[in-house]
Amino acid sequence: MVDPVRFVSYEDMLKVIHEPEKVIIDVRNPDEIESTGKIPSSLNIPLNTVSDTLASMPDDEFLKQYQRPKPSASDELIFYCKSGRRSQEALDKALKLGFSNSKSYLGSWEDWSSKQK
After folding, report:
1. How many domains does the chain have?
2. Which of 13, 20, 73, 83 has the highest count of CB atoms within 10 angstroms of its CB?
């Protein structure tokens, strides 16, 4: 069952991209982003590196790589991918790591790009 507390909509995303304290994470592979583009202000942390990046990447390395401070467990993280499957997986991983304010953009890139015309 989908927990509405854990999901954001396109309308939510339009607001969130202007809120620097929220961390939007694109979990697609870099080549996918290169061919399609990305949601403004999002960071690319591929699904296979989400756990390691959030759990064990040193703060200074995160800042150097992503040009923003590493999120804390209380920060709001919003994951998205192409269609929503991988973002759900990333959400599960983040919740297991203690990032309790994590969410997933249900429509992900397909929804975003279809409404950005």
Report:
1. 1
2. 13
Distance CA 66, CA 32 (A): 18
Q: Is 81 among the residues known to form the active site?
A: yes
| Host domain of residue 35 | 4-115
Q: Give dist(CA 31, CA 36) in Å, integer.
A: 9
DSSP per-residue string spanning 65-102: HHSSPPPPTTS-EEEE-SSSHHHHHHHHHHHHTT-TT-
Q: Catalytic one among 81, 91, 94, 106?
A: 81
Q: Residue 24 — very low, low, confident or very high, per pLDDT cuts 50/70/90?
A: very high
Cα-based angle 88, 50, 25 (whole degrees, multiple of 5): 65
Stated pTM of the model:
0.95
